[in-house]
């Protein structure tokens, strides 16, 4: 399926300015929207390729620049000095503003002519955490987080979840060691809207194609589960 891509500017709701977002959509057809939330490395080539993959699967994909309040247009690689800069940006990132910007991106995505009016959120790494929080604090119709970090400290937010949330957790994730993983699983086990999947023997960023920890089998399984959830939750 041919896709169309563009970069758009979206006005922030708090009057602080505007942020860019990368948009990928099927050439023709109307479908659900997905807000794709970046890793700590910005809206780089990997995140654009993820958006394009979603577009190939029939979704309108919007990738907002979440670091715009710190430094617009960040595109980083995965080794130093880029990695050090990425961690610095993450340390200074304001989560509350990020949630507000994701809600703004959701609103934008829903209003696109190619959208069916439904919108989900899918995030990776930092974006995995933000996807979980989007499930708690935005009106997204569904949210999926890949290897989000620090969720064990945010379990009290789960009482706000009203729509389906799926979490993909790497068993060997050094950023989410076993005690944290077990806290997440136990804390969310009884929530009727939350599904957690643990992938044995894989590390953080196992779904990043060409990444050091990429695992095709685990990534394919996680992606299949993601697509199934989104197609069900975002159906017109």
Strands, helices and their partners?
Blueprint: E1 3-11, E2 18-26, E3 31-37, H1 45-56, E4 60-64, H2 82-92, H3 95-111, E5 115-124, H4 126-137, E6 142-146, E7 165-170, H5 178-188, E8 194-199, H6 216-233
Parallel strand pairs: 3-4, 3-5, 5-6, 6-7, 7-8
Antiparallel strand pairs: 1-2, 2-4
Helix pairs in contact: 3-4
Characterize the structure shown.
With 236 residues, the chain is α/β, with parallel strands linked by helices. The protein has a single domain (3-233), classed as Rossmann fold (3-Layer(aba) Sandwich), CATH 3.40.50.1820. Helices cover 34% and strands 24% of the residues. Strands 1-2-4-3-5-6-7-8 form an eight-stranded mixed sheet, with helices on both faces. The model has no long low-confidence stretch (mean pLDDT 96).
């Amino acid at each position: 399926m041919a896709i169309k891509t563009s970069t758009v500017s979206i006005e922030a709701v708090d009057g602080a300015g505007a942020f860019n977002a990368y948009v990928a959509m099927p050439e023709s057809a109307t479908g659900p929207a997905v807000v794709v939330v970046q890793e700590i490395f910005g809206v780089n080539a990997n995140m654009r390729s993820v958006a394009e993959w979603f577009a190939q699967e029939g979704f309108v994909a919007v990738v907002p620049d979440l670091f715009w309040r710190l430094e617009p247009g960040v595109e980083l690689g995965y080794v130093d000095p880029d990695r050090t800069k990425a961690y610095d940006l993450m340390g200074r990132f304001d989560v509350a503003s990020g949630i507000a910007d994701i809600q703004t991106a959701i609103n934008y995505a829903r209003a696109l002519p190619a959208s069916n009016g439904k919108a989900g959120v899918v995030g990776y790494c930092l974006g995995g955490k933000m996807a979980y929080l989007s499930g708690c604090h935005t009106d997204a119709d569904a949210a999926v987080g890949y290897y989000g970090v620090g969720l064990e400290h945010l379990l009290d937010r789960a009482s706000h979840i009203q729509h389906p949330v799926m979490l993909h957790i790497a068993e060997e994730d050094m950023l989410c060691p076993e005690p944290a993983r077990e806290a997440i699983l136990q804390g969310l086990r009884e929530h009727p809207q939350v599904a957690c999947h643990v992938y044995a023997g894989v590390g953080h960023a196992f779904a990043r194609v060409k990444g050091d920890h990429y695992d095709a089998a685990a990534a394919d399984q996680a992606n299949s589960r993601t697509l199934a959830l989104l197609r069900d939750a975002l159906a017109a």
